[in-house]
Amino acid sequence: MTVQPNSIEARDAAYQLHSYTNARKMEAEGSLIIEEGDGVYVTDNTGKKYIEGMSGLWSVAVGFGEDRLVKAAAEQMAKLPYYHTFAQRGHTPAVELSEKLIQMAPVPMSKVYFTNSGSEANDTVVKLLWYRSNALGKPEKKKIISRIKGYHGITVASGSLTGLPYNHMSFDLPIPQVLHAGCPHYGGFAQEGESEADFVARLARELDEMILEEGPDTIAAFIGEPVMGAGGVIVPPEGYWKAIQDVLKKYDILLVADEVICGFGRTGKMFGSETMGIEPDIMVMSKQLSSSYIPFSAVMMNDRVYQPIADETARIGTFGHGFTGSGHPVGAAVSLENLKIIEERDLVGNAARLSPLFMERLNAMAGHDLAKEARGIGLIGALELHQQGEAAGVAGAAMSAACLERGLIVRNLGDTVALCPPMIITEAQVKEMFDIYAAALDSLSF
User: Which residues form the signal peptide (predicted)?
Assistant: First the structure.
């Protein structure tokens, strides 16, 4: 498209550096300006309406324009617009939200620490793990094992945990304390003739070998998403998480479940850990926690993690970590109301009930000439397309553009085109979304 002088698109290109964007391309073409949102739909500044098939960034569980969240924010803003949680200070919304999250946890948890984004939360997890190891008198126990294609954020520490090339290139990442184990994508990484069971056994064996090679006493934790999101919507094979947890228990290594995308119903249960049979020591939550109406995130830890940390704060005299916005009262109030909506409207149940239709429509496209593989669970899925030519991502970008032209916003992750609609979506809207998606796919020619 051509950017008109002095248009909002031109001003955007003139003054902003955008995330996950080719800056030179944006200077030439401008950006899509979204002005309004209502339910599963958003509208751009020309009046064109789209199904937001990605819930923004995997995150707007209750849809756009939810009056109850607007009201919760306004009421809290009027009552106490800001306060901190430093130096034994607190406020009611953060207290009530931490209590609610502990009650909702799929396994026994002890404490909640609030941050402002999934990236900040995972960055905090790295520091907590290092702090804990020092508290236990194990200063060598600092390495964290993540996975190839995992996504855990973009700070120096969380970006290192992420296992995607674009998040490392030219940033001098990852840092030395982070290792990356194999990706649980059977369709992408299985060896010739290898069954799913054999693939799972090999990944567990390779993890065991990595731990032994590095030294079990140097490994603090293993981190993983129950279902990978930004790596291409990768649902691990049956038995994968049990096999991984058996290895971790063997060497007394903590398990961190990154629930930033999976948490609060996306996989058809409240947490992805429940869907996948994971018993984490630490859980990281954001996105659907507040439906991204306001930046907010949380780290939840069990007593095994918390007690050594608490002892170390007593020895030093303080916990020398915190953000100005940690436990922000408006964010906490909005998150509390958001969780009430998810429960009252049974949005987790809605995801579970609509999942068979969602997966049926997605799987129906797996036989398309351009399709390589369909993957998904709950209300998150993706179609991976065959690479076109030397450069990866050509097919995915073309599919994303074809969907946008027809009124559907998706996200192409290379040649994988993801869908993750708001959990309020109806059966009719799921059909509408996939009708557009299928038409876009049929329109492609290379």
Answer: none
**Which residue in 218, 254, 256 sits closest to 141, CA to CA?**
218
Query: Torsion over CA of 299, 300, 303 and 304, rounded to 10 degrees?
Result: -60
- 331 and 183 co-located in one domain: yes
Q: What is the amino acid identity at position 267?
A: T
Count the residues in the chain.
Answer: 446
User: What's the pLDDT at 88?
Assistant: 96
| Structural domain includes residue 14 | no
Residues 383 and 422 placed together within one structural domain of the fold: yes
pLDDT cut 70: percent of the chain above it? 99
Cβ contact 221:301 at 8 Å = no
Verify that 90 and 234 share a domain, yes or no. yes
Beta bridge partners, 382, equal: 375, 418
Closest CA to 432 of 371, 382, 368, 361: 361
Q: Are 252 and 399 spatial neighbours (Cβ–Cβ below 8 Å)? A: no
DSSP assignment string, 257-274: EE-TTTTTTTTSSSSHHH
Q: What is the residue range of 240's domain?
A: 70-344
Query: Residues 318, 386: one domain?
Result: no
Q: Is the peptide bond before 174 cis (omega within 30 degrees of 0)?
A: yes
Domains in the chain: how many in total?
2
pLDDT, position 389? 87
